[in-house]
Amino acid sequence: MTRLDEISARLEAASPRPWSYSTVDSIGGGALYDATRTIASLHHERPEDHNGRIVRHLLEHEADANGDLMAHAPTDLAALVAVVRAVQATNDRYMKGEVPGIALSLDIHTALTELENS
Predict the structure, then answer these.
(1) What does the alpha-carbon distance between residue 115 and residue 107 come to, in Å, rounded to a whole number?
(2) Rounded to an integer, what distance in angstroms lies between the CA atom of residue 102 and that of residue 32?
(3) Burial of 7 from C-beta contacts in 10 A (0-12 / 13-18 / 19+)
């Protein structure tokens, strides 16, 4: 199994996309959701709650940034996997002599442009 196959398998096994993240004041953090349920909670420390004994907990802006990253990870990874597979397929055709170098370059440009615009 290739690394891309492993990434694809993890994406398929994860909760259904799209995921979303929103802050939840009652838990001092936020929650990560799939289409039907909560799939994770992120908790942060309010600076006024810091007692000096703990080096540092996750702060609110960090928890929100982490939640946003996690919420977008499945969709972002799926898009990246699709582009890599398209580039690999084009390269395979080039290596077999099925497409000239200029076509290889244009196909890769197209795949990257589609990723940029998705």
Answers:
(1) 13
(2) 44
(3) middle
pLDDT digits (tens, 9 = 90+) for 22-67: 887 666 678 889 988 998 887 776 666 656 555 556 677 777 888 8
Query: Which residues 6+ apart lie within 8 Å of 16 measured at CB?
Result: 34, 35, 36
List 62's β-bridge partners, or say none.
none
For 24, list phi and psi in degrees, rounded to 5.
-135, 100
Nearest CA among 40, 1, 33, 38 for reference residue 17? 33
Crossing angle of the two packed helices 101-117 and 60-95, in degrees rounded to 10: 160
As given in the structure block, the two tokens for residue 92 are 């395979």
CA distance 22 to 71: 10
